[in-house]
Amino acid sequence: MQYTIAVVKGDGIGPEIVSEAMLVLERIGEKFGHSFTWQEVLAGGCSIDAYGVPLTQETIDVCKAADSVLLGAVGGPKWDEVPSDHRPERALLGLRAELGLFANLRPAMMYSQLAAACPIKPEIIGDGFDLVICRELTGDVYFGKHYRSQSTRGWGEMGCDDMNYSVYEVERIARRAFEMARVRRGKVTSVDKANVLETSRVWRETVTRIGTEYPDVALDHMYVDNAAMQLVRNPGQFDVIVTGNLFGDILSDEASMITGSIGMLPSASLNESGRGMYEPIHGSAPDIAGRGIANPIATVLSCAMMLRYSFGLTAEADAIEAAVAATLAAGFRTGDIAAPGEATVGTHAMGEEIRARI
Ligand code: NAD
Fold first, then answer.
1. C-alpha span between 74 and 91 (Å, rounded)
2. How far is the CA of 131 from the centre of ligand 1 (A)?
3. Which residues, judged by CB distance below 6 Å to any ligand atom, belong to the binding site of ligand 1?
4. In three state form, how does the secondary structure of 37-57 look?
5. How does pLDDT run across 334-351, given as a tens digit for each residue?
6. Position 2 pLDDT exceeds 90
7. Which residue out of 193, 214, 278, 336 is catalytically annotated?
8. DSSP at 87
9. Is 82 exposed, middle or buried (0-12, 13-18, 19+ CB in 10 A)?
10. Can you give the pLDDT at residue 125?
11. Is 78 a catalytic residue?
12. Which protein residue's CA is at the shortest distance from atom 6 of ligand 1?
């Protein structure tokens, strides 16, 4: 098959890690008989430098027309003084909105080879964990009205943010979560705060109703405070966690921290047609940019997600994930995942080792 991929390398380590990931996809193409056409466009700080804005209409058009979008990371200290509506991160919000991305998928798993980096005790981790957080991205308190008012209790000025979720928004993210659980271990945990919030009661009712369409998937519900605790107490109990924008923002960062290695974690953001934007969860790491030492694995694994979730290429995605695991098992480490005193390889060498194992 032939696929067109919009490539947004971005800032900092973005160009270094994305270049390696593109070579991994080329290798997959050779092995499985696919061809990838790359359309490179700017977004973030580099776009501010070139065009004065973080996101141009050309970038939007190229990303919309492509079969998928591969993104590195945007931002850095160079643009810290830029007014907030022109900051590099605005490019991400703009792309998400333009592409209609409503489901953010963030896997968090522990590679047994990196167990030492996991901040949780081995006796708690047991056989490890492999979960995905499915976070709703377009609703919730982030997109309600934000305003100031006067306290009705006579306490002066107050800040207000409207939290809302429509049944439709919950239905579509719930379906995405159940579909994903079907190709994983068949379990969905829906996280809300239904003991307090009306939005959460709508959320729980709706997820429960959609769950009846998926009798082969087990569903349970958990309050967000308990979920935050359970993630560090027994992460192995989770398969797919589905939750709203605010709770998902917090829980997905917590889940990534328990893996102990930010340079390893991929993500996908999907729209209703299943097309999406794929990117590592980490930022542009300006502290190590340009030195050839960044870990490309999160971006490489984001490509595996692209093959799996947007193109339906399961064997190809499996091949990338197996090659990453084999490379780690063979002892190759970038600096961020090396134990003290352990030998390290650079970004390109890590990419080569992964490609050699595909
Ligand atoms: P960061 O994720 O860029 O870096 C945090 C720490 O992790 C740094 O020490 C960095 O060196 C290390 N790190 C991150 N990725 C790594 C990799 N692949 N290999 C090795 N080490 C890695 O977070 P930050 O420092 O808070 O943010 C830096 C910039 O990135 C900021 O401008 C921020 O706004 C931006 N950012 C962008 C995105 C995005 O594009 N999606 C996400 C987060 C932050």
1. 8
2. 22
3. 13, 17, 73-76, 89, 92, 262-263, 279, 282-288, 294-295, 298, 336
4. EEEECCCCHHHHHHHCCCCCH
5. 999 988 889 999 999 999
6. yes
7. 193
8. S
9. middle
10. 81
11. no
12. 285
